[in-house]
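JOB MANIFEST
job_type = single_chain_structure
chain_count = 1
residues = 394
[input]
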Amino acid sequence: MTTDTQLPVENFDDIRPYDDHQFREKIRKLVKEPGFEHAVRYVMPGVDYPAFVENLVSVESQEHFQKRVMGPFLEMLVAKTTDGLTVDGLDNYDPGKSYTFITNHRDIVLDASFLNLCFIRNNMPLTQVAIGNNLLIFDWITDLVKLNRSFIVKRDTGVREALEAARHLSAYIHHTVENMHESVWIAQREGRAKDSNDRTQESVVKMLALAGGDDPGDNLERLNITPVAISYEYDPNDYLKVREFLLRRRNPDYHKTQRDDLFSMETGLLGHKGRVHFRIGHCISDELAGAHVESRSQVARKVCDILDRSIHCGYCIFPCNYIAFDRLEGTARYAEKYTGADQRRFNSYIEDQLAKVDVENISEEERGFMLETMLQMYANPLRNQLMAKECTLR
């Protein structure tokens, strides 16, 4: 593998984060946006907004913004909406190297933010973050995420432009990891796996392999791809996902609105999540060393399999996962993993969440579908972990 070749640098202004030269100008513009003020007051009721603005405009760089503004804000969210944020596998992260962290996707906003908070707590380098432009509903949101070291994934292109957008994105990620020596975060698939049945999309891996030379295995090896498993004890959006499943079951052409996406972001930010755990896996570059004679599709499939196995084995399994599995299977296979109090608490939680589904004329058959769908969300991480560990033992 060649590591000292500098990639040709193209113009990435359309997707890259703002640099420090743009920072002060963009911050001063952002704090004047009514939508931004509304969002701040919504997330932090009682905030002294003029004092908040004064603190914000004194920030001079992205790193300062992430550590001095976003860090405390995320710590507040952890304290208010979780029962603790933990991480293991930090010994797999060499601060002297840059990585492409690929994770399963649980929360639209917080997955990468919480990962970076784990790094802030441990004085480790932070990552740039991939975010789909479908979430950039307002210009001020675009400014906010680009101030927070996010780069843009274009998802509204036509068929002809899609390949060029993918190549451009791949070139930026390679440039960031190889030339800028910064790490990046990207989810294993476009959008969240609403049933928590996490699978890496081949299209994501194929995109990463586009930039560089003609050898897709070498292109991927250069990125130091590292899987990260994310586990949320409870998903505040679970009832919204059930609602979407129900509406799509009634009408296969159902599509969410921008307002639905905004509400999902708000619910994910402020809803209770229970315990949250990140597990950083091993960089997979060594496993790709023999992949250089394979086709792009073969390499992509191999990488997907490696990532899925690592992520599934890395889940933190909570009592609710065991309870959901046993309820669906009609067994007591994992009864020793939870108490009667755990069971009553989870069953009550499920009932309360399903009661929030605001759809008219729900039949008894549909209620059964909703319950099963909700339980599947919580059982699937355990199911996938069992299968991954079985495959590993073979």
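[summary]
The chain has 15 helices and seven strands.
The longest helix spans residues 364-393.
exit_status = 0
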